[in-house]
Structure formats: C-alpha cells, structure tokens
Amino acid sequence: xxxxxxxxxxxxxxxxxxxxxxxxxxxxxxxxxxxxxxxxxxxxxxxxxxxxxxxxxxxxxxxxxxxxxxxxxxxxxxxxxxxxxxxxxxxxxxxxxxxxxxxxxxxxxxxxxxxxxxxxxxxxxxxxxxxxxxxxxxxxxxxxxxxxxxxxxxxxxxxxxxxxxxxxxxxxxxxxxxxxxxxxxxxxxxxxxxxxxxxxxxxxxxxxxxxxxxxxxxxxxxxxxxxxxxxxxxxxxxxxxxxxxxxxxxxxxxxxxxxxxxxxxxxxxxxxxxxxxxxxxxxxxxxxxxxxxxxxxxxxxxxxxxxxxxxxxxxxxxxxxxxxxxxxxxxxxxxxxxxxxxxxxxxxxxxxxxxxxxxxxxxxxxxxxxxxxxxxxxxxxxxx
Length: 384
Fold this sequence. Notes:
Elements: H1 12-24, H2 31-43, E1 48-52, H3 55-68, E2 75-79, H4 84-92, E3 96-100, H5 114-117, E4 122-125, H6 137-147, E5 150-154, E6 162-163, E7 166-167, E8 174-178, E9 191-195, H7 198-208, H8 229-232, H9 247-258, H10 260-278, E10 284-286, E11 298-302, H11 310-319, E12 343-345, H12 350-358, E13 359-362, H13 370-381
Parallel strand pairs: 2-3, 2-4, 3-12, 4-5, 5-8
Antiparallel strand pairs: 1-9, 6-7, 8-9, 10-11, 11-13
Helix pairs in contact: 1-9, 2-9, 3-4, 3-7, 10-13
C-alpha cells in the first residue's frame, strides 16, 4: 500500500503502557485515565476533561448533558456533512436535527445560512470541525448570543486545530475528541470531552458510569457524599450509560501525548507537500483552511475536467494502492437511516450534494507520505 488512509504512531512505549496495566490487574478506568484526563486538559487549556470509550460516546454524553442537566428541548442545528454519530445522539436524546448546508470551500457549516434555519424551537448549534478544520466561530458565537442558543462542538476530527489562537473543542460549552486509530492520537478506542464547567464535567462523569456518584470529587455540587462507601458507591444521581474507558486507553493516551509535537510536525509537513501538488488546480478543490487546521485528512472535490468522473478516479487510485473513502458522511440526508430519524431540512443542500457526488478523502498521519501524494497526483492528472 503506497498511500494508506492511516498509519500507527505506536512504539515500544505504548506496548509497555499496556503491560503496566495488565500487571496492575486494574482494567476499568482508574489512575491512568485520571492522569490522561488531567494531561489532556492541561495541553488544551481547559479546566476539565472527561474521558469516554469513543468520540461517538463523547457526542452522546454532550447531548445528554443538554437534555438532562439543561432540560433543553427542540431542534439542534448541525451541518448536513458530518459523521453518523454527530446526528444519532441528537435524536437519541429527543431532539430534532435541523440540517444546514455546508460552505462549498471550507466544507463546514455555512455560517451565512444558520440564522435563516433558526426556528422557535431551536435550542442549540452543534457545528462539526470537519477533517481538522475549524468552523467560523466568531459568527457562530454571535448568532448563539443573539438567539440564546447553546453551542457544543463535534471536534472529533480536529484535535489541535485553532481558531483565533483558541483550540477547537474548547470554544463552546463542551467539545468532543476521538482517539480512534486513524485520528491524531491513537488509544485503541477512546474519546474525550473538554469543558470549563466543573458542574458539567461532574454531571458527565456520573452519566458515563451508570449515573452513579462514586467517581465524583467530595466537593461535587451534584451530590454530597456521606463518607459511607457502602452507600456512596451505589447512589445514582443522573440518567446514565456505561461509556467508561479502559485503563489501557488512558495509559496509552499519556504516552501518545508525549509524542504530540512530533506527530503534528509530520502532519504539517505532509500538508505543505499535499498543497504544493493539489492547490489551485482547475480539476479539483481542496479544503479552504479556517484558522489553523490540524489536517486530520486531505479532502478533494473533483471539479472542472474531472467533475462527474469520481468512479474512474477512485478505481485508478485504488488499483495503485492509494486508499480512499467518501468525504465524511457525504450528504447525510441521502443515507437510508434517515427514515428513522427526526429532522428538519433548512434550505437547499447544494454544496453537500457536490461533495456527495464528487468528493473523497485520502489519509494523513504521523508518517511521511510524499511518495503516496506523488502517486495520487500522477494518477489524477492523467485524466486531465
């Protein structure tokens, strides 16, 4: 495979971290998860971090926070290009998805279409920082303040991205992160939520573990412990799930954070080379950067001479060992699962339809991929 979608950033240190957990005989979340949470919060300048077993679970927990703690009801505005588990937790918590088209250049929610989508029942906006690229948060925050809307971020693909020198995932009430194999850091499975509210963090800590209070600090305002472990360990204070992460994932996360600067340096070098080959071509569009992207992957929307030729291009790339896949969820309204979801469609989905028909992405990661980028360019330019 000359150009894989993802590559491992693991070494001997991660294997040793796993062995250390095995030797401890403590597998569910414990000291390693707590250590990783603190290190992660410190790295991104947030007051609190809550680790869960996946980025999808992080989205679920944030939306459950809006339902149960904040007692919100109604519809939540979200971009029509995102990921499946951007949308499912909205409906699973009794909200309606209010779909808005994306910007044709950034592929994030089109901020010029948000206000027209607001209904009397709109209670929140959930932008997706797609493929490492920040949304235009100045406009989004202005709209939220004007209309008294909550703001939470699906930041699962954008660890390390910045908008106006502030990390994405720390801009709204809460933001989600994913540590799946293809993401910026890899903890087998795993996810995180960042929030500056201690009360919100405690509420989510309770929800992630059945709703019980045993993992809460003694000074939590959610529940005042009695000091009697027999009772305190089996008090349920919130509606809950089992979204607990493994100790192995926490231990690996701490090791991965030590490699963070090196991982990002390689990703940025790959980005510069990708742009040197594919920027300003008449036959494709690449993602317009907002703020400082962390370049999760490299998206392409075929244009000009290649518009409508995606099947042929994908076949050629795949045969040459250039792995590829659809650009996120594409236009999610075209997915068959929509028959089971509650939603509103606000306006035309012109940009999303173009992405659906002509878009795809290729990988980025912690390895030098210049050779793969060259092969991709050679194949695509041969169609022109």
